[in-house]
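Question (not urgent): is this output format expected?
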Amino acid sequence: MNMPSRRRIWAAAAFTAAGLIGLATSAAAKEVAYYTPSDGSDSAYLIDWAKSKARVVNGVGAQKGVVTGDSAQRVVTLNSPFSILNDAFDSCDIGIQQRRDTNQVVVREGGKTAQIIEIGTFTNLGGCEDGLVTPFGSPTDEGVTHLQVAMAKRPPVTDLIPGAVMAGFSEDAQLPGEFQVAQDLAVMQAGSLLFQTTGNAVPASLSPDKWLLLALPFEQRGYTRLSVDAKTGGEHWLRAVWANGQTQRVHEALLVKPVGGASFGSVKQASRMWESGLFSGTRTPFYLYLYQDGNGERVSKNLDAGTETRTPMTWVFAGNDIVQTRSLGGGYYRGDRTWQPLRDVGTYDEWVMESEMLTDPDGVVTTLIKPRVNLYVDTGKAVPPARR
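Got this back:
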């Protein structure tokens, strides 16, 4: 890393660990975190289990409920539903809002993983079917696979010492309808966390039960480590909204410790078929093929349908970063995706801070993808397809 702002982050002054000791919170011994390892989402659950009751926290909110079932499959019937509004179309092709009410959460555990099912109803608001209620979910559904971590067995956070640098913390507000927050490089300071992009020092404290608590202007935000991949260095964390000493909403966050000198190398070395780690292992993998002549392709696959979509692009080095450019909207819009290297993994795999900006015909720039931590996996040399 050789940009001046990055050097400032790496060279931030050290401080005493005592400055991080803050608000005491207690993780219940039966509290379990569930998160999706890869699908491009930040879905997560934090459930505090009791014999016949549970407190369930997800990205919508926190609700208590009654537990039925057994150790093989437990059903939480919520006291009040998790409710969100989505845009939809009714059978008359009229644009409406549709309320999604989750009334039950089913958890089917199997060791290190769990299948989670939500059961509830969709209610049409407006249109030609105003008030129509459609059920979704069943206890016998396959469910969505989540990794699970007992909160009492989380990895330690003793490495969050003076001068520690992490990529993936955020000071960004998550607005209604948004599925992500802008991630950043940040370094611990005495009683604060210094963010690279803005230079803001956000008050921070480390609780005795492994939560890093940030006092943001709009909310108290907590981060806690769930797992560390010894092979790649990638880390899964919970990002939570805190209020009244409890988590109120939770999301999964992917973090990594940057390592100085990270780089894609030369043009020849970077000319590979890169698979996005956010979708690795799913039925819809996504790749970026970088050809040595400066051209490339975005490749989206649907393994169930047996289809593949290719979108042409170009790419260049911008200092140590890689910028990929594609045309959208019939060529009237330009999308620029930037990879900032964070950490080399083995010979080619690379952790990056990834973002994408959209430029319209008038030169107005908007954000398509907020900065996010992602691992790109080398799947082989990128060779342009033969011309027809």
